[in-house]
Amino acid sequence: WLKLELSQPNRVPPRRAVAANMAGSSKLLRVSQQLVSQRSACAGFRHQGRLAATFVALPRLSGSLRPLSTQALFGVRSFSSQPKAEEKGLPAGSLDFTDSQIAFGSKSTFELFRGWLILQTCAVGWIVRHCDSLYNMSIKILRPYITHEILRHGLFNHFCAGENVKEIIPRMEHLRKYGVGGILDYAAEAKDDGEPIKAPKAEESAAGASLTARKYDYHGEKICDANALIFMDAIRAVKDATPDGFAAIKLSGLCDPQLMERMSSCLIQITHLFWKISQDPATRKDISKSPYYAIDRSFTVDRDTFKANWIKFFNVDDDDDVQKMFDKIDTDKAGVISYLQWTENIRLSGINDIAASCKNKGPMYEAALNDEELQLYFNLIDRVHRILGLAHEIGVRVMVDAEWIDIQPAIDHLVLTLQRQYNKGDQPIVFQTYQTYLKGMHQSVLRDLARSQRQGWYFGAKVVRGAYMVSEREKARTRGVESPINDTYEDTERSYHDTIESILGHNVGNKGSGIGKDSEAEVLVASHNRGSIELVIRRAEELGKDKKGIYFGQLMGMADNLTFTLSKNGYKAYKYVPYGPINEVVPYLIRRTQENSAILGSPGVQEERAMLRQELRRRIFRF
Questions:
Q1: 271 within 8 A of 292, measured Cβ to Cβ
Q2: pLDDT of residue 217
Q3: Is the Cβ–Cβ distance between 414 and 432 less than 8 Å?
């Protein structure tokens, strides 16, 4: 490493060069002696290859160098030599995301080198594509313990905060010193033990609402109950380790994913039914193969149209039954029904009664949940209420992860139910995640903003671009349907920015109570794209949006130049922090690396690698 750095041009300012050379010779000699002394630490691992030697020896080396890092050689906190934003040609008042000393001031020199090495390795395509095979091979050859110890000092410690709550607290406290919060995500799977918890039959009224890499294998209700307890532990960990932070939960871990697919199918049919009873049969187009979020829901249906179309699909005893159905849904008593009213008054569990009266056993009839599925659904409702009840009680905010398209409508349905109940106070407890690479997502956000104002709850959201682009497009191709993913990156970028701008502008300047329907929306901008972050900051200033309702999030181990620059300038910045037993978290890290392979070669990551090299050279040649 030092040989590589010494081959680079000396960047010491000319006026200090002579003094630096005189003082630097002895310091370089001491560093070289320490490097040589570490050869014995690597000797015992030669038969396991150079990689093992590197990652086992370097932590010891960093410990040896740490006394020097407190002196001039590895000084961390001196910012005097860094040019100001204006001196770099940036507009006055803009943030300088290229200041490597701000970006990496919280890291030791070893952590810098480890980060550079990992990002450099992740830029090698064949390693990323085959890292799961390489991991399995290492498990067989080196055995699990040695493999995981190597990964602990590399990938795991770089991207994760620890294995348990006790280990993550120091990492979170370290981030808090720099004004950075945490979004804790327990990234391991629960073990199959213990008895399932029985749930009562209870449900909030909600229906028709409309990545991280972790996945759960379903092993029965017991594993779902165990996962619920894990999520509750994560919520308590947020309270202990990063009080202003978030807990991330994944709803597919709380029930059989196949049940969520069945729920989603049912919700899709509810949307299709609204379309059918609202349109003239002569001109009504087939939407059965259209992407779910792209279906137009902006129209209303009047009483006569509703009645005429309803009796074409369902058996009714008399006209009064249809009139009562319409009046029940028309809560505004305006003589027309909107999509929001429709979804507020058609329960998922109540679809069975509607489906039972179908004249033909078509998609609507087939989508209805059977009695066994309804009980599993009620169990799921019970789990999420126990989790969010705890979060509400101790004041911890929860972000519900978005997942693959086949189960996303069910997730939306559940999150809206939770937001109606738990976002009534002076802050949102439940945050929905919107994937803007899906066609029609901006319109979905606008509907949910209208729901929050109509129903009187506090809107909270995380906005991401999305991570399942390749797999979702392939699924659509094999099924012979239109892809739910935007056709171009520019379409996704436009949707991403339009969605954030709509959330930023929600209730801005409202002179009401400031809570519930009068509250401004809160949004976490999850992005490693510097241009998007700069746009959000600029637009928020133009709108007069308070900083306190805007959050920025990046993955731990990446985009430190964004996170720490934002926090230093008074913005609420967060790291998405996975934790859990290393043997269970490594598969998650591998999946995340593969699914984010596109951004690992992006200009932003290339810039980050360059900044890491720059900061390493600055610390090495600081004499």
A1: yes
A2: 43
A3: no
Angle at 170 between CA 559 and CA 228, to 5 degrees: 85
Checking if the pLDDT of 373 tops 60, the result is yes
Global pTM reads 0.80
DSSP alpha helix (H) spans, 395-460: 408-422, 441-455
DSSP sequence for 202-235? ---S-------S-------HHHHHHHHHHHHHHH
pLDDT computed for residue 458 by the predictor:
94
Residue 85 CA to residue 326 CA, distance in Å, equals 61
Q: How far is CA 202 from the centre of its chain?
A: 29
Q: If you search the block for the tokens 């509250």, which residue do you land on? A: 519
As a whole number of angstroms, the distance between CA 248 and CA 187 comes to 10
- 515 — pLDDT class (breaks 50, 70, 90): low
Burial 55-88 (b: 16+ CB within 10 A, else e): bbbbbebbebbeebbeeebbebeeeeeeeebeee
pLDDT tens per residue across span 444-472 = 999 999 999 999 999 999 999 987 787 89
Q: Check: CB of residue 86 under 8 Å from CB of residue 582.
A: no
Q: What is the pLDDT of residues 305-337, one digit of tens each?
A: 999 999 988 988 888 889 998 999 999 999 999
From residue 601, how far is each of 104, 121, 385, 465, 598 by CA, in Å?
21, 11, 41, 17, 6
Cα–Cα distance, 360 to 315 (Å, whole number): 10
Rg (CA), the chain: 27
pLDDT in tens, 8-45: 333 433 433 334 443 444 443 354 444 434 443 333 33
How far does Cα 400 stand from its chain's mean position?
A: 8
Measure the CA–CA gap between 560 and 457, rounded to whole angstroms: 34
